[in-house]
Protein 1
Amino acid sequence: MAVIIDRDECTGCGLCVDECPSEALSLDAEGISTVDADACVECGACVDVCPVAAITL
Ligand code: SF4
Ligand code: SF4
């Protein structure tokens, strides 16, 4: 399942990458947050920290 990232909303600030406890998030070649679905434990921390609400669980 993992999280869904709205690529049009993400600003590439990187806050979610820093917040993720399982290192499931990273910025891709375009500087947009992307998730490794296998690593995501669905904790919701990235959803809470995103300033533009680009992530949903
Ligand atoms: S829900 Fe938790 S584990 Fe999954 S990507 Fe977000 S911060 Fe990482
Ligand atoms: S916190 Fe939100 S805006 Fe910032 S990189 Fe993550 S998804 Fe993009």
Protein 2
Amino acid sequence: MNDYEHKTVLPGETIELWHAKPGGVYVDATLGLGGHSEALLALDPQATVLGLDVDDEALQVSRSRLARFGPRILPVKESYMNLSQALHAAHFKEADGVLADLGVSSLQLDKAERGFSFRNSGPLDMRMDSAQEQTALELIQQSSDEELEQILRTYGEERLARSIARRLKEASRDGRLTDTLSCAAVVASVYGKRGGREKIHPATRTFQALRIAVNREMANLDKFLVDAPRLLAQGGRLVCLSFHSLEDRKVKTAFRALSQGCVCPADFPKCVCGKTAEFKMLTKKPVVAADVETARNPRSRSARLRALERI
Ligand SMILES: C[S@@+](CC[C@H](N)C(=O)[O-])C[C@H]1O[C@@H](n2cnc3c(N)ncnc32)[C@H](O)[C@@H]1O
């Protein structure tokens, strides 16, 4: 596989929002294959980027891809959940821009051995950080029927969550969940003939839900959305690119709350709370990919880009 196959989503729009100040300190909280970081470092010859990722393979690829930028790129194996520690460990007090391009990279999806894809046979793994303990198979084995149903319903918005959870549990007890394809086949069997009428593969939502649960993506994002704004310098920006309605809702809600000034009830004649906004929203509506980009890169179809600036 071509190492650089991940097509960076909304590259121009993202860099424009992320690049708050020439020569600034930037955090790429999801370095991946380094597409966004490469664009920023090439644009601004004085900028420095601290790049975080939990995926060893992604770090290996981005390290070599970005090597030409020398000490201006600092790739580190760390979760964006620990952004504050990572920033301080790199001897930075604050950042002029923090970017999170959430979700899965093509490197992860395309490598069958990583277990993210239902199109090729691979172990039911789905861990972004291979040092983490629980694989997708172990998650299925160790969850109750009800817990698994809840995961599929919440993270996959899967309407057949109960039946799929029950069948997956049965299959795991019988030793039939041998790989990603057998898992996808169990899900497809629940859909039966209806599966053929779906616009997407019937296993899409189940795989998405398992991936989100295995990597604790929502809990990580919650912590990140609390910490990242506080680590911005004045005029610094937090930019989030999400691919899932749950993620986008979290980003939108956090940004709205942070950019809210006075919280007095609307019928108060004048402000008594004295609260002033510390942040302003740079994107009233999320930026989405144009038709040319979605035609070239179908993954960009669900992308939602939002940005916040510290005042
Ligand atoms: C969509 S890709 C980023 C692609 C990148 N912007 C590019 O242009 O190449 C998302 C990356 O985030 C990483 N990731 C997921 N959860 C993470 C976490 N908690 N902390 C740091 N990185 C994480 C994944 O391993 C993956 O490499």
